[in-house]
Amino acid sequence: MNLRASFLLPSRAWTAVFLAAPLCIVAAYSFLTRGDYGGVDHPWTLESYRRLFDPVYLAILWRSVWIASLATVLCAILGFPLALFIARAGRTKNLYLQLVLLPFWTSFLVRTYAWLFILRDTGLINTILLRLHIVNTPLPLLYNDAAVLVGLVYNFLPFFVLPLYATLERLDPALLEAAADLGAKPFSTLWRVIIPISAPGIAAGSVLVFVPCLGAYLTPDLLGGGKTVMLGNLIQNQFTSARDWPFGAAASIALMAISALLLAGIMRSRAARELM
Amino acid sequence: MPAVLELRGLAKDYPGHRAVDNVSLTLDQAGFYSLLGPSGCGKTTTLRMIGGFEQPTAGDVILNGESVTALKPWQRDVSTVFQSYALFPHLTALQNVEFGLREHRLPNVTERALKALQLVQLADKRDRLPAQLSGGEKQRVALARSLVLQPKVLLLDEPLAALDPRLRKQMRGELKAMQRQTGVTFLFVTHDQEEALSLSDRLAVMNKGRIEQFGAPEEVYLRPATAFVAGFLGAMNWFGKAGVRPESTRVAASPPEGVLLRKGIVESLLFLGNCIHLNARLENGECAIAEIPRDQCPYAERETIWLHWQPADELYFE
Questions:
Q1: ipTM for the whole complex
Q2: Which residues of A touch B86 (CB under 8 A)?
Q3: Between chains, do A183 and B74 touch, taking CB under 8 Å as contact?
Q4: What is the pTM of this model?
């Protein structure tokens, strides 16, 4: 075995044991029948996949795609100006990048719980609004789609900002001057020069936000209060309380397939080829 | 001819130094002008203040009789050809040329853009992206993109610097032809004295943020106003306080009579193709260069020679 292969061995072993093997198990489970007390049983069947097309589950799928799309759009609206600002910030650039990464110093779970304390009836926002007599009863900020969206956007915004920042930072400032020189006002320059050129960064950021949001489990669970069921919650539910492992496995495979199709589509686009 | 562009006491301060210091200049309609100077002399900053990319600390930029000092770049009727060309990488050659026409909401955009590409002989490459064009072709697209807007003044920021020497000479000729053909006033920034001398109707020599001389190439070359201008526009031999150009410096094997002369020895002979540069070491230890025809050089290295010149060829500065 040569040196190169031996250095790659640990990561290959890790991938095989902790990624490929469980994936094969999940794939196999999805074609089996549910056991009486959880687990799986014979015979092999396509029943779980058929059930995915039940309107109830299609609605959950649609809802997940919808919420993940909304989160991605919101991240784009918030993240684009931020990334542009940081890319043009000159010497303070690194400070701002650190601030974007600051939330990662605490765990995902803690950060999501923090939103509970901000949004709940006796939380920060409602307390302030009540004290100022702007409202008389607490606003229902928690346990709805909006709360889930807030949590997702908050958690995944850095994943949009960073790749976009990387492309914007490489943008030649002379291009912006050339646009202005040719008569383009700032908004026109943004629309006709900055956005098209940073398309690879926008695409990368969108994938990095959309894919994890589609499979999000913790955020809808904590902030949606079980009312906002997304694919991730459905899968978790099937493996725990519903004790339907094959259906949970089939839903997992479906989730992966959607993500993979989306990635493949973006990889084939011109934007991705430029990014590579 | 009315003045198309006038700079009045233009100055630009950066923290710690003054990049441009009291620059005043008047450009007439349809001329080819150059700003010549070493790097850091303030020529590019001056150009950027005309384009609207830098706000002057003091002074005024007057275009067609009206002050544009407070106007943004997109409000000024001038256009810049950037040193890096700054072509939009996501647009084809044709779309690059169309960009400004669309911004100005002009009719017949594609037709006009095609004409401009024809002017720079690139109509056949209209659908290429900048990445698929050579350096010279990018340069021409940039030129077409600016000229198609028929600006009052075309500002060129060292546009030939990134090209290889052969292409540079070819583009030089094309630039001049283009200026004559379009009748647009060109203001050309360069650090290359040969470019400035060969292209310009009039050129301004800049040093340390100031204009040292503004005049026709011949005038600036033959009657430089300062020692800096004399030295920057070509080699200069210093015989005491008098400066003499190498091509006015003659060589003799024995001391000729009735002329000004210096004794020296031949240090090296450089064959330049069309002429020979004889580098001499004078008795006082200083160096001097004589440019002599290649068939009139019977001298060898280490040989003692006399350099001589006519009093009329002497240049004096304060």
A1: 0.85
A2: 172, 174-175, 177-178
A3: yes
A4: 0.81
